[in-house]
Amino acid sequence: MPMEGPKCTVCSKTVYRAESTLCFGLSFHTKCFRCSVCQQHIRIEKVQRNKENELFCNVHFKRLQEIAHQKSITVLVSLNPIPSNMETLRNQA
Ligand SMILES: [Zn+2]
Ligand SMILES: [Zn+2]
């Protein structure tokens, strides 16, 4: 059985050394080493990743963080019990 190389983090296919990019201790095809939003090739010193090991350029990683931040605010607001309590208090008064 032939030795299998590491698998590409993006496409899950075997990465051969000649076409490999190593980053975060993970293997990538050089052609797969790109922003998952804009598909632009990313320089290894500029690359960002999320928890799922998806790669992003600086621009789209920032945008992702902004969206995540907005979502967490929305969740906090929708879980905030104060408005309904205020309503209850007013009804009791
Ligand atoms: Zn790949
Ligand atoms: Zn991008």
UniProtKB/TrEMBL annotation:
The protein's superkingdom reads Eukaryota
Spell out the molecular function terms from Gene Ontology: metal ion binding
Which ranges carry the LIM zinc-binding domain? 6-67
InterPro entries associated with the record = Znf_LIM
**What keywords does the record list, in alphabetical order?**
LIM domain, Metal-binding, Zinc
Q: What is this protein called?
A: LIM zinc-binding domain-containing protein
Task: List the source organism.
Answer: Mesorhabditis belari
